[in-house]
Amino acid sequence: MSEPEKIEDIPDESVGKGKGIPNGGNAAKTKEDFDLAAIYVSDAQYNRNIYFDTSPEAVRLYLRYNHWVSQVLLYFFILLDLSLAVFEDPAVFSLPIWATMLVELLCLLVFTIRIVHYAKVIPRDKFWKDPKNICIIVIIVLTLVDMIIYGALKATNYYGVRWSRVLRPLLLVNVTEGRQLRRAFRSIRNALPQIFYVFLLFMFSLLIFSLMALKLLGKRGLTTIDGSPYFTNYLEIIFDLYVLVTTANSPDIMMPAYNASYYFAIFFILYILINNYIFMSVFLAVVYNNYKYHLKEEVRQLVRAKRHKMVRAFAVLQDQREGREPVVNQANWNQLVRLVQPDVSNAHRELLWSVCDNNNHGLTGKVAFVQLADLLNIEVITLKSRPHPLQSLCPSLYQSAPSRLLCKLVQHRAFVIVYDLIILVNAVFIGLDEKNPLIANSEWAFLALYLLEILLKLYVFEPRAFFSKHSFWNWFDTIIVISALIATIINSSVTLPGTYTSRQILDIVFILRVLRLIRVVDSIKRFRTIINTLIRIGPAILTFGQLILVVYYVFAMVGMELFKHKVKFYEDSSDPTKAYCGNVLLKGTAFAQLNYCKNNFNNVVSSFILLVELTVVNQWHVLSSGFAAVTHGSAKLFFVFFHIIVVIVIINIFVAFVLEAFFVEYSVDKSDLQTSLEKKIEELELAVAQETLEDNLVNAMETIDSDQGTGQSANNKPTLMFKIASKRYRTVDALLQRMFESDLDPEDFAENDDQNGNFANPAFSAA
Amino acid sequence: MSEPEKIEDIPDESVGKGKGIPNGGNAAKTKEDFDLAAIYVSDAQYNRNIYFDTSPEAVRLYLRYNHWVSQVLLYFFILLDLSLAVFEDPAVFSLPIWATMLVELLCLLVFTIRIVHYAKVIPRDKFWKDPKNICIIVIIVLTLVDMIIYGALKATNYYGVRWSRVLRPLLLVNVTEGRQLRRAFRSIRNALPQIFYVFLLFMFSLLIFSLMALKLLGKRGLTTIDGSPYFTNYLEIIFDLYVLVTTANSPDIMMPAYNASYYFAIFFILYILINNYIFMSVFLAVVYNNYKYHLKEEVRQLVRAKRHKMVRAFAVLQDQREGREPVVNQANWNQLVRLVQPDVSNAHRELLWSVCDNNNHGLTGKVAFVQLADLLNIEVITLKSRPHPLQSLCPSLYQSAPSRLLCKLVQHRAFVIVYDLIILVNAVFIGLDEKNPLIANSEWAFLALYLLEILLKLYVFEPRAFFSKHSFWNWFDTIIVISALIATIINSSVTLPGTYTSRQILDIVFILRVLRLIRVVDSIKRFRTIINTLIRIGPAILTFGQLILVVYYVFAMVGMELFKHKVKFYEDSSDPTKAYCGNVLLKGTAFAQLNYCKNNFNNVVSSFILLVELTVVNQWHVLSSGFAAVTHGSAKLFFVFFHIIVVIVIINIFVAFVLEAFFVEYSVDKSDLQTSLEKKIEELELAVAQETLEDNLVNAMETIDSDQGTGQSANNKPTLMFKIASKRYRTVDALLQRMFESDLDPEDFAENDDQNGNFANPAFSAA
What we know:
The first copy, chain A, is mainly α. Among the domains of chain A are: about 50-175, no CATH class; about 535-665, Helix Hairpins (Orthogonal Bundle), CATH 1.10.287. Helices cover about 65% and strands about 5% of the residues of chain A. Chain A contains 34 helices and five strands. In chain A, helix 12 (about 265-315) crosses helix 30 (about 635-665). Chain A starts with 12 loop residues before the first helix and ends in a 27-residue tail after the last helix. Chains A and B meet through helix 9, helix 11, helix 12, helix 20 and helix 24 of A and helix 9, helix 11, helix 12, helix 20 and helix 24 of B. Chains A, B: It is a multi-pass membrane protein. Chains A, B: It is found in: Membrane.
């Protein structure tokens, strides 16, 4: 690697100033410098906005704080803490109180260690200013207090409530790594004021319609289908009409009035039009509009903070040159990248360097250097062309005419079509009765065919390329087919001796068989496009999964305290109390008639499934009325509240997110940065033709003349090819940032943001 | 009015060429010229894209064709034709066949006259190239054929089907005036290919899940709540899981499996997540994305066509000047505007002229002239300041100190608050039992209070200003209060003699009482904003109303032929067959148990209400299973098809429209054109202060010194004030165009579009 021209050692006060940049100038860079720069780059890469101390000791601690092992451990203990609900009363698997308490104490200990570690990394005043730290400390203290009280009450045989359990999911929000989740909560909080006013208007409309319903229908002596008076109680009308907005009791709630006269249908149609179609669309519009607006602002701030960090990293590693812009030389740059991302191959690193050092001067300026964080986030697939191992072993056989013909056949489009047809035939056979011996034995034939396909492909394509990291469908096929083979063998060996068949194994066999059919999707290009878009927004959907988990957990904890053991489910169908779920209060209710006994809050799993049902909305009025019947009418408020929070707010934000992500996918194709990297790849003639790749990643490999080079350098020709996995994003942030990249000025380094003494962190308070 | 400098008479070939522009140059403009120009302007204003003949006779015919009377007549006969369904078998009110046939013949005659009229207006080749004309002719012919066949069958006592009835709503789409509706259908058609692929993928996922359900659950011997086998028939599973996507049978469909084991809940949750949340969001995203894209393209073409027409109008009326740009002088311009819009006041017209003739030269250039169509579309409220009539009658009394104090009190904010409180108290009283004499009499007190409010306001504010066209709430209040007064008086006079109370009058009284409460909304600014936005998108929602009407009508006609009289509703509750809706096949079905007998296709009104219920989705599986039970299993396809068309496609387009309209409302505030008009108004110091207007339109009037001028000219000071009703749109197009105005180049006159021999009309074929 060429060392660039030596430069004068002039410390630059304008850059080296400030707390975060201790080592400006041209002194030989120490290990501490590299550590610091690497931290800045990695913080920029993962959008960590932590104002850490820059003393060497704090930097080492900070490195350890961000180490993946400590993060995995933290999440493990959070999950352990959350999953304690499975073992605590009301439990799925009952454990003695001391056992769960002990585990919880252990978790609290880990969280305490983690927060102390964090306190040592960042300056004291910053630590106490950050609401999420306060929040964690408060959670730990409150949990301890609650455990002591509960333990004391239990020891003296009093009734105790473990109220601090609702605080547990808040840990997920407030740990340093919960950035995405905090952002999601912020976008909800930001949308709340506007939602609130629409909601008030909606409630006003609901009250007016209820009043009208009471006046119009209350005095007519109509009865509902079970004979109770219809629309006579104002509060009940409000609840019924609220339920009608969710469509859950349509058209039943209308039928008594409709049976009395056609004209009353007008009332209900008007109500549904205004409150269901118009208001619900307005909710979505308001949520979506707010979401878009605030997201834009947040991502802009995030990108500014990222650039700021990259400028700091640059300042640490820069070489000063008199009268010229400071630069970073290749050696330092290489060491930095190796530190930040040790798994990057040499070739990949050289490619990145050639993007940063566009003019081949052996050094990179500030503008080019700042890209590094984004460049590292772009996933580059390095393809090495290797000869097929069989060619090395017995070249004469592999190169023979029949073998070549076979290769051609397998690579032909007809091969794919034939196997798609086989899959379709297989689908029909699966649908038929497997008791028929012919059908049962056909399974072996299909398995053999699928195995043959994999073996043929392995014969034709280089195995390491076939099983490369990004060949999703190859992995999918192989795993499914081999699992199915194993399961089928086990199943038939279990079946043969006696007549007993293990249901579990058979279930697995069936699932695997059906899953195999999914492969057809990959053959149709239009489908692949849709699926790829869905896969791309997958990680972001996971953030919403966490959000839902937090909300569900809180509601499950509260619901379990309120409703546990009020409704019982009897496995034994002969029990006479089964008809009313073990609670006489439920006699004759729709809840009992529909046999909803298992929809209860008797343990955390049931609670979660019940909450899913409430999210789906249908029949939620039956469920809420059931629980109101066994406790008190006001219990319905719990369910209405859940509906407002989850369905009106969170699901709408989810839809807004999917819409926005789809629009970005449709409108933007590749970000500017990726294009610059791609340009470089094309410039160096290292690109893999896009079209061939689209068809089959492995095909492309075969068209390249084989060459035994290990590809250490990019100079000797294409033994090594690059392809940008442009459609995948390592982080959710990358997707979000891409959404709004067009608004950003590439020359804006956000240097004046330092005046605040902190990175521009979006306005935040613990959720 | 000043005549501008006289200009040389040089016919300009470059402008006067072309079929549409017969009269370039400076010859004195004839009546025909003005007619032609007026037609171009009015076509531009209302976005009519009709390539009419420019011969004076054709122009006269065209004027008559576009006259509002002929349009109203046309729509009257279309509605008459559609409403025949009420009287035809199966009828709400039965009429003899000859009567409905006669009316239908009359309608057909009107349509024929209309299309012949149209054929005379436009060149023959254009007429036969337009699919919507062909469509109307085909509809007329087919209807005649059907009527003859049906008449012959009936005469010979055979069973006949009036199949041409499904064609009737297509008239609504294909008449010249159905532009908005055709556009809505086009946006659906454009979105279809993309929706189709997502739908296929969705169906694939549905089939895979169904297969898995069959294999996992079919063999376990589970039963549903009514004892029938659970998940054993593949087709039924597909239907059940399709219904689950609409959430209509959640959680019932899951309960048998869930009762058997917790693990099966995973299957259903996964299914709901993928097919309900993900796929339904993707449907919305695809529809919305397509909608946005195509709408943009269409509106761009519309605006180009509009400009083209304005350029033609300009060419007809222009005066040529040697070496200078052609212009139109004020006299011609005035006559044109008078022709186009006779109801525009002189003052308003002078205001518009001062916008077109910005430099006061007495003539307007092409760029300024082209704005005219848009300027005419901006609603300008002309306010005349008049003294209160009482002041003219007895000025001493009206100007006395107590009278002034009263005016101040009424105009005070507290007055509004006091009346809001009265409304709230009234709401409580309405909620209470009206049998109580105190409550019943309180109604008189409230009525008196409301009347007093109106009288006080009339005392303080000038009555004509109080009841001006745009004072919605004043009109609302007065109408509601006076109607309530009349209804209450009638009601009590009817009640007093005997104990009998007319239900109908009482209903009206109650509705009026409750409606009065709505007034509170106007006092809260946030609510007003939301409501204003809703009112603004109202006209566009009406287009969707037409769309829904067309689709409903077609489905109602088909449904009536398929299912009429299969399910019967008995008013008499003692009839034993009532329990199963008069059809033994329904015995024991959920349809009969839930007493859905009145949800039938026995007449067009029932059918429409049933279709609304199907649109709301909940319980649609019960309804479809009911109708399948009385006919054939494949009847479910009718309902599934309805769901796909109405809920997946049309409702999503509706939501997309509301979202887009809301975003435009949030982001754009006023169009450039409106601003230019407003600037002019401000320049001339004729503006009404915005803030005072926001509070109360009438308040502002009082602050202006009274002056008896009639305001013929804008030169003598503000006896006349203008205000732009900027937030209202005369046409739906104006709203749509405003949405995409930012993309358009104001200097682009679309002159080369003429080469196609027609106005740029968006690709269209009859729906």
